Amino acid sequence: MPLTLHNAGLFLFYAANANLASHPFLTAGAANLIRTFGSQDLKDLFLDRMYQGDWQGTMALTEPQAGSSLSDIISSAQLAENGLFRIRGQKIYISGGDHDAVENVVHLLLARIEGAPAGTKGISLFVVPKFMPSAEGLKDNHVTTAGIYGKMGQKGYVAAHLMLGEQGDCLGYLVGEPNKGLSYMFQMMNEARIATGLMATGAASGAYYASLKYAHERAQGRHPSNKDLTQPPVLIIDHADVRRMLLFQKAAVEGSLGILLKCSYYADLAHAGEGDRAIEAQYLLELLTPVAKSYPAEMGILSVSQGMQVLGGAGYTDDFPLEQYYRDIRVNAIYEGTTGIHGMDLLGRKIFLAEGKAMTLLMKEVKSTINQGNSFPELAPYADLLAQRAAALHQTTMKLIQLATTETPEVFLADATLYLEFMGHLVAGWVGWSKELLQ
Fold first, then answer.
1. Are the CB atoms for 141 and 130 separated by under 8 Å?
2. Phi, psi (5° rounding) for residue 321?
3. Which residues are catalytic?
4. Distance (Å, rounded) from C-alpha 305 to C-alpha 322?
5. pTM exceeding 0.90
6. Could you give phi then psi for residue 93, rounded to 5 degrees?
7. How far apart are CA 68 and CA 109, in angstroms?
8. Which residue ranges form the domains of the chain, and what is each CATH number?
9. What are the residues facing 131 on neighbouring strands?
10. Of 8, 69, 322, 404, which residue is least crowded by CB atoms under 10 Å?
11. Average confidence (pLDDT) over 100-114
């Protein structure tokens, strides 16, 4: 199924219940890694059970001493019998890491084979199941759950602290070649980054419709121009500030969804397109992935907060769903790398991608939309506004690139998060103007 279509549907599941929808997504992502890089024996052993939903899949990256700094992971892998590896170490915050709704949990896990180079060049990828398949059935593989984290939100999506090989041999299957694990894992990580933005947008959408419904039902107060207390209160949807908050929510959701579907479209073009079209789509996808993950998460938090404000005191109670949406959505700015990490990725790496070609392609596409908008008199003022913002982004980008040549990376990247937000605003304002819409 094209990713554009898939994510348009997945968005609805995230809006309904992101806690539950995350389980099959994570499993499919882990299974896709095995399908893409694993041997035929691995595929035969795991894929059917994972795609059918009998076995949960996870991505097991984070460790207590390393956090998001994957170059510092220390989980080890020692060659054992039958080509398997003995795995030892700890993994923390592993989403879907252990629960009894499935009969097995399959971890796609990063570790270092003994003697591997330091840093990211020495990381390998392993399939490490909680229970090892055998002719006699599933056997304990000594993946021990040391604890379940008590989270602020997402109570239906467990996060586990795992101990590997503490109580006996924990065996894992090497995926692909040694020391290439991080490059393999980036497939799942980039899928998860798009999904994280989609999850945030779904939650923000659910919160928007809940607050919109309340605003159409709750009567309170009168317009400032009406001092007649014998007149009944008006619905709060008629108050200017409530409308402002609802429109902010609507804009945040629609702009974020537009970014995510645009990235999904680029992913489809990169996968199924040909020649320069496919290459350019891949550049645009890589450039915008940090924005697609972080901008919907940050704007979604603000959006749900405004929805809670629409309800007033009722929004802070569990009689209405806003308080749950608010707790649930907060983690999306942390999942799959914090906003600061993605800001540095965008400013420090992605704008230089292919010697700046990715950024040039984005500006070219925005310029094309501006030209289309200028051909419609009623849209020309908005096209002019988009042009001003695009010029400001270009000017800011050139200024920062110049700064990178004269200052240390610490100075150059100090505004990375603000730069990501700036680009997110521009892209959100642009994506709603498709050629098809204007025609």
1. yes
2. -80, -5
3. 336
4. 8
5. yes
6. 55, 40
7. 14
8. 39-175 (2.40.110.20), 186-438 (1.20.140.10)
9. 140
10. 69
11. 95
